[in-house]
Amino acid sequence: MLAYQRGIKSGTFDRALTDFREDEETRDNVNRIRAAGVPVMLVYVPKMPELRKRERIINPQTDPLMTSLEKMFNKPFYLIQQEYRGELPPKIDLRPNDGHPNREGLRFYADAITTPALAELRGGPGNMSENR
Fold first, then answer.
1. Between vectors from CA 59 to CA 58 and to CA 62, what angle results, nearest 5°?
2. Distant-in-sequence, close-in-space partners of 100: CB < 8 Å, separation ≥ 6
3. Strand pairing partners for 101?
4. In this structure, are residues 73 and 39 in contact, taking their beta carbons and an 8 Å threshold?
5. Could you read off the pLDDT of 3-44 as tens digits, one per residue?
6. Rounded to an integer, what distance in angstroms lies between the CA atom of residue 77 and that of residue 80?
7. Which of 7, 26, 46, 58 would be 50's cystine partner, CB 3.0–4.6 Å?
């Protein structure tokens, strides 16, 4: 994601990036992570409207980028909005000023991902969703 974000900020992309495998720095970073044997779990962090609808609400560029990461790591994204079954907190972000999580949002995301992350660390896919 860093290469993608850097390209957006610096304007270095002459076209929209749709596949992280096309970015040399991202490929190198993924190869280093895989060579180090670091456990990886791809997690999509949804905003409240996505949690309520239980689906991703994304722009057309995001889906192929996510798919390319799944292919690079050979594992699916864990989609909190599809897997989480608990009660949603009334507010999880700092809106209207900022879309980042507030304290309650950080707790929510941590709680939502703890069980599947522990399952992944124990060697199983846990509740990893393959549905998109």
1. 80
2. 93, 94
3. 93
4. no
5. 455 555 555 555 678 999 999 999 999 999 999 998 999 999
6. 9
7. 46
CA distances (Å), origin 87, targets 35, 51, 66, 109, 112:
39, 10, 27, 12, 11
Residue 131 in this model has a pLDDT that exceeds 70: no
Distance CA 75, CA 34 (A): 12
Half-sphere exposure of 5 (CA within 13 A, CB side): 2
The per-residue pLDDT for range 45-91, each reduced to its tens digit, is 999 999 999 999 998 889 999 999 999 999 999 999 999 988 999 99
Sequence letter at residue 131: N
The dihedrals phi and psi of 56, each to the nearest 5 degrees, come to -80, 140
**Radius of gyration, CA atoms only, the chain:** 16
Residue type, 105: G
